[in-house]
User: What shape does this take?
Amino acid sequence: MNRKNLPPQLLDLVAKAPEERTPEHLVVVTDLSNNEPAATLHRAKNYLLGRGYVIQSETPDRVVFQRGSFWGNMTSFDISDLITESILEIKPGQIKFICKVQTFGQLISGWNYIDLMYELSELRSVAIWNLYQHELAALIQKRKGLLRVLDWTPASRFWPKSVR
Assistant: This one.
């Protein structure tokens, strides 16, 4: 992933540690900390459950969510169908969200990446400020479908070098 190609407002969402990124995973990290940690955690959990995640495990310092399936990875063009593990790490004064998308069986396009960044941006808006981004959601929905699948040229910069 070339960080130079990302808009500045999305850079803080991309995993900073290169060892977290592998050809089989797309990893993004964002901070959900604010001055209302209990309310933020509650809104983040509700948002993720509404996006198709299920809670795999829950402890006082960590909530693990999962969505997607093997068949989603093998057949879908929608990033929300891919096997995804999302973690809310809770520490005193800090809530960190980590999202790991398994990309086996897929060529992740630029639009897939934009979908994931939109979801993270919306999670931040809902969890921290309790705001939904209806206008941005409508804009993203316009690009769904076959046109998005055929849009390989700008997306190729996100592909592994062996595939380009």
In short: The longest helix spans residues 110-129.
